Amino acid sequence: MNVRVPLDIRPDLDARSGGAAPVLRERGQREVFCGLTSIVWLHRKIRDAFFLVVGSRTCAHLIQSAAGVMIFAEPRFATAILTERDLAGIADVNEELDRVVVRLLERRPEIKLLFLVGSCPSEVIKIDLARAARRQSEIYAPNVRIIAYSGSGIETTFTQGEDSCLAALVPTLPQEPPAAAPSLVVAGSLADIVEDQFARLFEAIGVPNVRFFPMRSADNPPAIGPNTRFLLAQPFLSETARALEARGAKRLSAPFPFGAEGTTAWLAAAADAFGVPRSRLDAATAEARARAETALARHRATLSGRKVFFFPDSQLEIPLARFLSREMGMVPTEVGTPYLNRQIMAADLALLPEGARVSESQDVERQLDRCRAERPDLTVCGLGLANPLEAEGLTTKWSIELLFAPTQGYEQAGDLAELFARPLTRRAALEV
After folding, report:
1. Tens of pLDDT along 320-363?
2. 3-state class of 408 per DSSP?
3. Residue 120 has what pLDDT?
């Protein structure tokens, strides 16, 4: 039996005016993609880490399919599959897990950081992976650190797998030394090419001691403490932000670095925190901003004036709606997000256009009804909704593509705009 909970409309703080802006909260049937998916980009980022999922064959097939890894490849992830002996209680799960870890580390001696990742089967939830990680860490330290976190998709959206991973990693980061010079940590996985671009920009601007988290090597973690300032590169890192703040670090509030405007405001937050004059910021970013504006102009005619509807999926929805409305001239009719952290999203919320409806969580049937009634030019949604909506004549964009493609920064601004323009261009070509 499906129980439908009434929707809840309550006022939230409006950063634009200090007044109240309505946010539509819904509780009902949801479309959720598994948090294990984040391993697909995380295992590429931390090059000497390994992700061992404790789960079922379904978990193994999901990650294999999402990653597109062929059977003869050697990825940095695997699944310890629960078998009939485990389910029947014949085998001791902890002993079995220990044996898997031993075989894994013998086969892959280059591993420096091993994540034990919990999944959603009830048999896995009963396993105390945190205790298993502590026990195994005592055996393999200091050569290998072993950390546990949950990648279950029962209560979270798929991007929160990264949040859980990084939040679990924060307590293991070194403490900054006494009287340390101020430093900046950029938190959130970025494609290596984007990370390198930002590193060069911070150097040109004059922001000192910049580190990125997650780090590319487990042996080179950033130090955290009261003199640490951090910028979020991804909007879904609520738990990670809280963990960094618990270590004394201070978050810099800024729009997220999507598009030319967002990237400039994001860099400006760091420049202001470190006392860099605006004139130096403008000079250091002028050429990159000009290239971004040129790239964006190529897609503005396709996107300008078009209505866009966001189903909640990745937590990227609010900053992307800000980018599309302010830089591409699109009209967001509904901006749905799985979870709304008002502090982290404050800067982007303040820049949303008047009339854009913001909704939190999901009652998928009600949202489908609103989408059908509004007939937007472009619907951004998960894979499970895209094909049915296409069959109804709506043009869709898969939200998961926005995670797998490099999208942050000046050099990627045109590529980001093209991701939204491409479905509209394809639709126009099919209609001819």
Report:
1. 999 999 999 999 999 999 999 999 999 999 999 998 999 998 88
2. strand
3. 77
Where helices occur in 9-141 by DSSP H, the ranges are 39-45, 57-67, 84-87, 93-107, 122-125, 129-140
Q: Nearest 10 degrees: CA dihedral of 389, 391, 396, 397? A: 100
Same domain, 274 and 199: yes
Of 191, 242, 245, the residue nearest 214 (C-alpha): 191
Domain termination site, one of 283, 314, 347: 283
- Total domains in the chain come to 3
pTM of the model: 0.90
8 has pLDDT over 60: no
Round to whole Å and give the CA distance between 257 and 303: 20
Q: Is the pLDDT of residue 82 over 90?
A: no
| Per-residue pLDDT band at 77 (split at 50, 70, 90) | confident
Pairing of strands 145-150, 210-213: unpaired
Q: What is the 3-state secondary structure (H, E, C) of 376-402?
A: CCEEEECHHHHHHHHHCCCCEEECCHH
Tell me the longest C-alpha to C-alpha distance in the chain: 69
314 and 279 co-located in one domain: no
What is the DSSP secondary structure assignment for residue 226, as one 8-state letter?
T
Give the strand order in the sheet containing 183-187: 210-213, 183-187, 228-232, 250-251
Range of the domain at 63: 35-155
Q: Are strands 357-362 and 20-27 parallel, antiparallel or unpaired?
A: parallel
Residues 190 and 279 in one domain: yes
Q: Which long-range contacts (CB under 8 A, 24 or more apart) does 382-387 make?
A: 382/31, 382/33, 382/311, 382/313, 383/33, 384/31, 384/33, 385/31, 385/311
202 versus 89: the higher-pLDDT residue is 202
Residue 89 clears pLDDT 60, i.e. is over it: no
Q: Is residue 178 part of a domain?
A: no
CB 343 within 8 A of CB 13: no
* Residues whose CB falls within 8 Å of the CB of residue 397, separated by 6 or more in sequence, listed in order: 378, 379, 380, 381, 386, 419, 420, 423
Assess if residue 177 is contained within a domain: no
In a domain, 57, yes or no: yes
* Residue whose pair of structure tokens reads 């409006």 in the numeric block: 14
> Do 39 and 150 belong together in one domain?
yes
List the CATH number of the domain containing 132. Answer: 3.40.50.1980
Is 30 a residue whose pLDDT tops 80? Answer: no
Give a yes or no: residue 166 inside a domain.
Answer: no
Residues 337 and 273 in one domain: no
Are 424 and 293 found together in one domain?
yes
Domain end among 255, 283, 311: 283
Region 255-284: mean pLDDT is 97
> Which two tokens mark 313?
């999926």
